[in-house]
Amino acid sequence: QVQLVEFGGGLVQAGGSLRLSCVVSGSIYSINVMGWYRQAPGKQRELVATITSVDTTNYADSVKGRFTISRDNLRNTVYLQMNSLKPEDTAVYYCNARSITWTNYWGQGTQVTVSS
């Protein structure tokens, strides 16, 4: 089992920045991809960014150049640095871990609200 706890959501004005953190515990050795997803009201959950065990990253087109995903293996933490935030970035952000057996684990979510 893998447990994920997110921190760092909040309210920010357009153009501002936030950093989300996801602390990972449990069977960490089984994880090969970590990621952030988001879900806005009335919309489906969508991929924001992923990072593999060898630090290969992938981003949604809508956040490229503005968001950066990174990991700190010593702290078992994955980060999402979000800059130049837009109102359309408003959503609940979820941390995700995918194991080598393709099992998906999710955090409880953290709200990010960007005011115009």
Topology overview:
Layout lengths: L1 E6 L2 E4 L4 E9 L4 E9 L6 E7 L4 E3 L7 E6 L4 E6 L8 E9 L4 E3 L3 E6 L1
Q: In words, what does this structure look like?
A:
The protein starts with a strand and ends with a strand. The strands form 2 sheets. Strands 2, 4, 5, 6, 9, 10 and 11 form a 7-stranded mixed beta sheet that branches. It contains no helices and 11 strands. By secondary structure, the chain is mostly beta strands. The mean pLDDT is 96. The radius of gyration is 13 Å and the shape is globular. A hairpin with a 4-residue loop joins β9 (91-99) and β10.
Task: Give descriptors for this structure.
four-stranded antiparallel β-sheet; 116 residues; mainly beta; globular; seven-stranded mixed β-sheet
